[in-house]
Amino acid sequence: MIRKITLALGLLAATTTQAQLVQKVTDPVEWVNPLMGTDSKPSLSNGNTYPAIGLPWGMNFWTPQTGTMGNGWQYQYTADRIRGFKQTHQPSPWMNDYGQFSIMPVTGRLRFRQDDRASWFSHKAEVAKPYYYSVYLADADVSTEIAPTERAAQFRFTFPKTDSAFIVVDAFDRGSQVRIDPAARTISGYSSRYSRGTLPNFRNYFVIQFDKPFTLAYGWHDSTLVRDSLLITAHHAGGIVGFRTHKGEVVTARVASSFISEEQARINLQRELGKDDFETTKAKGKRTWNDVLGRLSVEGGSPEQVRTFYSCLYRAVQFPQRLYEYDAAGRIVHYSPYNGKVLPGRMFGGTGFWDTFRALYPFLNLVYPSINKEMQEGLANDYAEGGWLPEWSSPGYANIMIGNNSASVVADAYIKGLRGYNIDSLYAALLKGANNEGPMDAVGRRGAPYYTSIGYVPTDAGINESAARTLEYAYDDWCIAQLAKALKRPQSEIDLYTQRSTNWRHLFDSTIKLMRGKKKDGTFQSPFNPFKWGDAFTEGNSWHYTWSVFHDIEGLKRAMGGNDAFVAMLDSVFTLPPVYDESYYGSVIHEIREMQIMNMGQYAHGNQPIQHMLYLYDWAGQPWKTQYWVRQAMDRLYKPTPDGYCGDEDNGQTSAWYLFSAMGFYPVCPGSTQYAIGTPLFKKMTVTLENGKRLEISSPANSSANYYVESVRRNGKVHPLNWLEHGDLRRGGTIDFQMSAQPNKVRGTQPSAWPYSASRK
């Protein structure tokens, strides 16, 4: 009897576990949580995201604004008051925003200052979806709803019975204008706020069309109400219009914007909203999101895993944003942040290549190549109009971060088959960037004269983060060499950049098996602390940056002393305590704190330099350790919750790591066509490729216990390699993973199975 009961309970547990798995996703956008990562602050990032209500790669997004004007933390989950509903282009709180303005309903007293008009709200009365947002504003007794398009949106305000219903428009400071036209029921104007400096002739023009006549209309500037003028041009301009409403009355506002002109904003309004009502715009937005997110269909994961996956996919298809528009004749035009002119062609903004070259752009090249083709066209226009490629575009040139990783972004796209844009111009841009210091530290290569003459950027040349620069420049040179080969450039050119790609060796200290800054005289930087953040490295320490030889893991392994020594160093990342030296910064920066609290030793997944390191066991005959640690990172460091990331999400990069890892492979070395195999997360994933092919990745025995790869079959044939080929994946077909609770310590252990390295062709 006891045996029967035990057996029955076991069957029930198995059935319950199986029932908890999501068998099919038919409406992927409904699995997205736009609030994932929003429980963040300057001292600790759980994503540093905000609920971006918009369309994939849209020109702008909308977000409820809980922060004060100019605060990069514009929406924080722990906040309890909303100051407005802001049109935003913000890629991260550290970069802040540009061209923003906000709309806010108010009732009772006429209140327009940001603190006075703020209203309490609760997440219990908030609905956040990529294509729709609603919230109840308690102080105003007003419900606000938003449905976006790429360059426009519809608002729906449900008011109480009152003769004192108001809409406040705030065009923000640093130069703005608001014009109220009661006869046309419109508010128009512009914002010229740009957080990273100045841009020539920069304005974000907007027009807001209401469906109800105004009972009053006032302008305001700074903290002053202006009752006798409907046109305000000031440092900080705004407007307020009033209505009489009955209980439950809905007032709608149709909003569009343009970086080109107010006339173009009106064109965008008509083209994108036309005669559509709110529900139609909402339905169209949902359909667009499902079309984009539906390229990847997952089966056999837990509800939490499915929510995390699609929330990460939502983040991966936001940046960079389209900055181009369609003029009255339907021609593609854009405002140039480089010369202030309106020019033909595409333009994008809002991404930093230091973060996104690693996985975000390779993800686009595999799943959404057509949008990256547009982005490459935009890069060609960046170079034509500004003379350099941006490394951080927000938009234009931003003087932040290091590296010359536009080389990776350009090379990876072309090598993986993208065509139809001016690659010769982009290649010329790469050569210029590789051999010259730019107009600011973060454009071109800071320290280029040293790098090209002695092979590294020295620590005693007054150039910060010199070791990190050297390592990234060496990888970027390898990317240029690969692109040079593809373009059939002269052999001397190929040889030059191939030789430079070995410059990482200058910084490798064989006595400690770590990268170390070096002085101009050829001696290593001393004193040296491998746990010191910053100084010769960027937002990390030597334990993080030593692995930044993406293109030559075999060479790095040999330098460390071979397989055993290499694996021992990889293992040490996890077994070392999370100690740190913050003296370079003078305080504990948030990236340090995020590493410390994750309980993974020196592994700092919350920042980008080390994110590929988990896959490096594939090069050393112990791929099961990659499988173990990749699954650990997926399970422990990502949740579909407000504190769901383990550091900055960073424009899709940290999300793209999860997306690739859930597929079962990862692009350790963009610019090559190989993906290192890890461990798939779902029992099945289907990728619908743009060429019409379908890639089916199955692992039916996959579970929380069965995360080790026993064997792999590609289109039914045994696949003994630790890598997959991009061109092969683009042909579709099947990848079948046999999973086990025990590691297979035979598969993938021989050098013939290891991925590409420059030292082992």
Please tell me about this protein's structure.
InterPro entries: 6-hairpin_glycosidase_sf, GH-type_carb-bd, GH92_a_mannosidase_put, GH92_N, Glyco_hydro_92, PNGase. Monomer. Residues 31-258 form the Glycosyl hydrolase family 92 N-terminal domain. It is a single chain. The protein has 761 residues and is α+β, with helices and mostly antiparallel strands. 29% of the residues lie in helices and 22% in strands. The protein has a nine-stranded antiparallel beta sheet. Strands 1-3-4-10-17-14-15 form a seven-stranded antiparallel beta sheet, with no helix packed on it. It has a six-stranded mixed beta sheet with strand order 19-31-32-36-33-34, covered by helices on one side. The longest helix is centred in the middle third of the chain and has 21 residues, at 466-486. The protein is globular. The model is unreliable at 1-17 (pLDDT under 50).
